[in-house]
Write a structure and sequence with these properties.
This protein is α+β, with helices and mostly antiparallel strands. Helix content is 34%, strand content 30%. Strands 1, 2, 3 and 4 form a four-stranded mixed sheet that branches. Helix 1 crosses helix 2 (58-77).
């Protein structure tokens, strides 16, 4: 079994590969460094706290992150997460002149 910290690192890497994702940010639980992985009865749940760019379709970006994280964990850890929850905690500033 791969540790939750490694799975969290994989999930963060996958999320950062999506256009418009500015970064992983600490949510209300700072010790998780923006990604929380919980295993319960063999099922893995992932929660990501993200910052995204201004003027994006946030639900669309969230859906792309969910899909990418699931694909990445499947490829890297032979694991299909039960859930991938995306929480947008920050939206970047508007471009100058907007």
């Amino acid at each position: 079994m791969i540790s939750a910290d490694i799975l969290a690192s994989y999930a963060a890497d996958a999320a950062l590969g999506i256009e418009g994702v500015r970064g992983v940010v600490e949510g209300s639980r700072p010790r998780h460094q923006g990604v929380k992985v919980v295993t319960d009865d063999g099922a893995v749940a992932v929660e990501l706290h993200l910052a995204v760019d201004w003027a994006l379709n946030v639900p669309e970006v969230g859906a792309r992150v969910q899909m990418r994280v699931a694909e990445y964990l499947s490829a890297m850890a032979d694991l299909t997460p039960a859930t991938v929850d995306v929480i947008v905690d920050e939206i970047g500033p508007p471009p100058e002149g907007v």
